[in-house]
Amino acid sequence: MHQARETDIDGAALLAKLNGWARSLGFSQIGVADVDLASAEPGLMAWLERGFHGQMHYMAAHGLKRARPAELVPGTVRVITARMDYLPHTAPAGWQQIEFDRLARPLDATVSLYARGRDYHKVLRARLQKLADRLAEEIGPFGHRAFTDSAPVLEVELASRSGLGWRGKHTLLLSREAGSSFFLGEIYVDVPLPLTESTPAHCGSCRACIDVCPTQAIVGEYRLDARRCISYLTIEHDGPIPLALRASMGNRIYGCDDCQLTCPWNKYAKRAVLPDFDVRSVFDAPTLLALWGWSEADFLRHTEGSAIRRIGFERWQRNLAVALGNALRATGDADIAQALQGRRDSATALVREHIEWALAQRPQAC
Known about the structure:
By secondary structure, the protein is of the alpha+beta class. The chain has 2 domains: 11-90 and 116-189, NADH Oxidase (3-Layer(aba) Sandwich), CATH 3.40.109; 208-267 and 280-359, no CATH class. The chain contains 16 helices and 10 strands. Strand 5 and strand 6 form a beta hairpin. Helix 14 (312-331) packs antiparallel against helix 15 (334-344) and helix 14 (312-331) packs parallel to helix 16 (349-359). Residues 2-6 have low confidence and may be disordered.
C-alpha cells in the first residue's frame, strides 16, 4: 500500500463511474466507508471475550486489527464496499416457503442457497480486482487490497456505515432493496474518496430471525453465539458436533438459511445477474442417501470450484451422518440404517462416532 495521498479528482463523478463499472462486473451496489471504526471495538472485544467465535481462532488472533483497517493494511484511508446478489435466477416466487418445505422432508438434504453454485470467494475476489484495475486506469496507480470474507475485516460494519444496508438482529446485513441474499466484498484503498451515507435500521420490533433459529444461536439482538450456529457447526467446526445440537440440525448438511428465510425483508431479495450462482444439478434436489453414497472422488468432482469443497470429505460425511440420524429417527427407514452400517467400518474415527450416534436414533420398533 502506498502512502495516503490527496487527489484533485472530482469525487462525485468518480463515484458515479465506480458504480457503473461495478454494475458491469455484476455488483449491485457499492459504497465508501471511513476507516474509523472505534465505536465498534467494544462490541467486538466483548464478543471475543465470551468465546462466541468458537474455533475461529483467527478472529481473536487479529484482535482489534479487524476494527482498524489502517493497521491491517497501512495507508488505507477509505474502504470501497460492494454487494453482489446471489439468489439463483431460477428461484421461483415463494422460494422461502419452498426451502422451508425442504427442511420438513427428512430424507432431503439441505445446502445453503449461497453454496449451490460457484465459490463466491473466487467470483468476488476476481471482480473486485477488476474494479480496482479499472479505477487505476482512471486515476493512475494507487494502493489497494481486496477482501472477500478472506481476512479479519468487519465487513458488515463497513457495509452498514457505507450505506449498503443495516445490521439485522441476526447480525447479517439487511437492505430494503435486496433483503440479505447477497455477498459482501471490500477494497481497502489509499485514495480519499468521498464517503457515502449510512442508512437507518428497519428491523423495528421484529424478532422473527431470533425465534426461528433451530439452535437458539442468536442469543440476543445483534448477538450471535457461533458455537451454536448450524452454519458454523457444519462448516467451520472440525470436531464432533455437540450432542445437544445434533437433533436441531435436522437435514441441514452445509450451512443454515432459516434466519434469512423468515426475514420479511427477503421478499425483496434480488436474483443473481451472474451465471456463477446458478444451482448445480447435484444440489438442485439432493437426497441424503444419494449424497451419502458419494466416494471421496465423487465429492471432489462434484464440489470442484464450490465453496463446499473447503470443508473436506470427512466433515461432509460427519454432517450427513447427523442428518441421516435425524431422518432415521423421523422415518425409521431401514435403507438409512443399512447405508450407515455400510460405511461404519471404513469411516474415520470422527465420522464413525457420528454414524453410531445416528444408528442409535432408530425408533425402538425398528
